Amino acid sequence: MSPHAPGRRRVHRRLAAGVPLALVAALTAQSAEAAAPAGTDHAESGGRGAHVVRTATLGDIPLGAFSNALLPGTVSDDRGVDLGGIGSDVYPAGRKGEFWTVTDRGPNGQIKVDGKKRRTFPVPGFDPAIVKIRVTGDTVRVLDAIPLTTSSGKPVTGLSNQAGRDEAPYSYDASTPLAYDPDGLDTEGIVRAADGTFWLVDEYGPSLVHVSARGRVLARYVPKGLGLQGAGYPVVEALPSVLLHRKINRGFEGLALLPDGDLVMALQSPLSLPDADAGDASRTTRLLRFSPRKRAVTAEYAYRFDPVNVVDPSEDDTSELKISSVVAVGRDRLLVEERTDKAARLQVVRLERSADILGSRWDDDTAAPSLEQLDDPAAAGVPVLVKRLVVDLGTVAGVPGKIEGVARVDDRTLALVNDNDFGMTDGSGAFDAHGRLVDSGVETTVTYVRLPRRI
Q1: Any long-range contacts for 409-414 (C-beta under 8 Å, 24+ apart)?
Q2: What are phi and psi of 295, to 5 degrees?
Q3: Would you say residue 54 lies in a domain?
């Protein structure tokens, strides 16, 4: 549905963080009927017997109304953008059909100016949020939302952190520079711990972020040597310094909670070691195990992507390979999503102790060759994680593109969430002459996929 369609309604009542968003839920119900695709239940398809059993759609919720209901005054003009981006990750919330999700940094795009791309933030006051949803029939309803805040309760933003390291932020039309924000988070993966707190991962640092049940950032764990100054919450340099070489916009993307309470973080893409060209050509990225009790990384693993044309037969650019989700499926087993923007494959790996490379020469950014430069890491003595294909989602009819969130519903059913980028597209045509969004038409959907056998 277009952001200017008659079904779009405005929220006129303030809603406190941490309480059910009843009014927003009502808005969702009003607009979902028009947005939800029909005829998707129990549609048999390929994927060796895997098939879609349900598709549900999030209705149009004005982004300004949503944000200002949580933290009044944060968004002065949403430029016609609706709530989106909640498909950055998804985690079961305990009750049937309910999930915790997290937005990313908010609406953003790229516009070329004088031959160079500028990163735009059309709604710079947007505050990333944890959003609780319920899937009911073909509708995704918002039950609750929790804004992310600093220690003093100030909203964080999604803006870039550091000049010279992150992309310079600009206004919606790329004409006006915006200020960097050391509190800014590009949140991606989410899990909820037994004590009710949340753990998130972020692409900027890259960082692991511990958040209270009400959204206050308790600690942000970043690579040693990052030197982030001026943040309004504790910043702890506890991650390996080699992570300083993450690609721009390709930091931590996936996060899993193991049964013992440890966390596993996935780098979206190979590190740029020794340079960007090596990172773009590499098929080896890294997973890191973190102990909340020790507040330290305790293991690191090399993960090898399949060739890009195996993951996505329409793609020949290796740099398009990404990990977007990791899910614990046992004491030491993970479901890992390898994807491009158009296709995805889910693999199972076991985190063997013998595969731990933490503290080895591969964490030394002067190593030559680097881990990322090895054409055959196993032949060079690197213990690459052994993986087993569970399902090729690119062959399953009804699965949308850009799946970023994966949750386990039961032993044979997965819930998938796409990132609709808030309806944004790149280029100068993303907004009309009045500065209003020209919506891409891509909706946020939750898609249930039934597998032919247990994971």
Answers
A1: 409/92, 409/448, 411/454, 411/455, 412/450, 412/451, 412/452, 412/453, 412/454, 412/455, 413/53, 413/448, 413/449, 413/450, 413/451, 414/346, 414/448, 414/449, 414/451
A2: 55, 45
A3: no
Task: Count other Cβ atoms within 10 Å, centred on residue 234.
Answer: 12
How many structural domains is the chain composed of? 1
Residue 47, in any domain of the structure: no
The answer to whether residue 202 is domain-embedded is yes
* Complete DSSP assignment for 98-156: EEEEE--S-S-EEEEETTEEEEE-SSTT---EEEEEEEETTEEEEEEEEE-B-TTSPBP
Find the domain containing 162 and state its range: 22-26+82-389
Tokens 């998130």 found at: 200
Yes or no: say if 265 and 277 are a contact pair by the CB < 8 Å rule.
Answer: no
pLDDT score recorded for residue 24 = 53
> Is 214 within the bounds of a domain?
yes
Q: What pLDDT is recorded for position 47? A: 53
How many whole angstroms separate alpha carbon 80 and alpha carbon 3?
6
Low-confidence ranges of the chain (pLDDT < 70): 1-47
